[in-house]
Amino acid sequence: MKNNSKVIMYLLVILIVGCLAAGGLGYSRSLTTKSNDPGSGNNNDNNGGKTKEYNVNYKYYLDGIEVEEEVKDEKEKTDSENFEGASESKRLYSFDKYSCSNEVKGTWNDEEWKFTPVLTADATCRLYFIKNTHEVKVIGVNATLKDNADNEIVKVEKDLETKVNLKPTAGYKYASHDCSNRTEASYDAEKNILTIKSAPKDSECTVSFAVSAFTAQVKVQNGNIDSKDENKKANYGESLTFAVVPSENYGRPTIDCTNGQTGTYNNGSFTIRSLTNDTVCTISFTISKNKVTLNVENGTVINVDNSETPNVKETTNNGVVTFGISKNDGYLLTNPELTCNDENVRIIHASGTITISGVTKDTVCTVKLKKDESTTTNPDNGEGEGEGGNTNTGNENGEGGN
Fold first, then answer.
1. 389 membership: H or E segment, kind and range
2. According to the model, what pLDDT value does residue 284 have?
3. Are 138 and 185 in contact (CB under 8 A)?
């Protein structure tokens, strides 16, 4: 009895191994069909009038991966894209292709969700299906997605595009994107949108952004800039400085930069601070008109030009202006005190004419005339003259004759 039990056990093991080897993970079933083998002759003659049976074994694949269960026609309800508040039923899978061993052919009926082989021999048929909707994980490098996250999982339906917004970190711009499993996508750097065109499998798309390097170009009117300084590059937020010199007698630049950038000019240096975009800056120098104001204490400026402001004149850069002055009564034109609020200018006086030179900015100068001391009355002399007068008067009255 023990020996018989062992024999039975061995037979069961051999049978199970044989079944697994023949069927794998698929499903086996026996189909009855007449032989289509041309070499078999008349089936009734060769088979004694009996119908020949062949076995077919099915294996199922989803997105190229073998699965342990039959892929059935499953559906899910989703919100309608055409009617608000309505729902529609969508298939989860689509039939893709098949392959059968021993050159067995067959047909697929999509409505009945059924594969029918034409068996001419025992065969194994592999049925391939694909998901109609796949999940794609979008990962942003130096960028943020929905709710400021660094990744987002989106569903991509078959034959439909899916768009994902990615906001680059400040100072970064699009560099590249890479998707797995043959997922196709494109990126619009102007709108910051990743468009997933197709996703044959669940996959990942990584969109990378690199620190932005911007170009600044400087153009100068009525001035000069070194040719090597006309174009410079800097990363986001960095500053650039250019050596710019106005032409002679020009100054007071106007500055215009594109793309919202700004710049400042000071003593031969033009600076763009915190560059955030490509830009072209134009610096236009105008002919310098520096205002010179002359104030005269104890005198006045002669209005030779019938000007409303005779004590104010304009001159070009490093120019020269002259004023004629007159004195008040009791003051001298000689050796006046001359001062200016710009120590770099030169002011001189000659014969009632004030000359101011070396003017590079608005300047105020003052001329202070000195008092003429020679015209001051002597009190002692005044009293003597009075007494003398009295004597003369007394003589006229006859008193002096005594």
1. helix 379-397
2. 97
3. no
**Whose CA is closest to 206, among 142, 264, 161?**
142
Using the predicted structure, report yes or no on whether residue 46 has a pLDDT greater than 70.
Answer: no
Task: Let me know whether 52 and 141 are in one domain.
Answer: no
- Average confidence (pLDDT) over 361-381: 81
User: 């105020």: which residue's tokens?
Assistant: 364
pLDDT score of 20: 41
**CA–CA distance from 212 to each of 107, 250, 252, 354, 367 (Å)?**
56, 36, 33, 59, 59
**Pair 281, 361 in one domain:** no
3-state helix/strand/coil string of 59-118 = EEEECCEEECCCCCCCEEEEECCCCCCCEEEEECEEEEEEEEHHHCEEEEECCCCEEEEE
Does residue 391 fall inside a structural domain? Answer: no
Nearest-angstrom CA–CA distance, 219 and 254:
12
User: What's the domain range around 311?
Assistant: 290-374
C-alpha dihedral (69, 72, 77, 80), degrees to nearest 10: 130
pLDDT at 13 over 50: no
Average of per-residue pLDDT values in the chain: 83
Local structure of 184: helix, strand or coil: strand
pLDDT in tens, 106-121: 999 999 999 999 999 9
Length of the chain: 402
Burial grade of 16 (CB within 10 A; 0-12, 13-18, 19 or more): exposed
Separation CA 400–CA 395 (nearest Å): 4
- Whole-number Å distance between alpha carbons of 222 and 46: 108
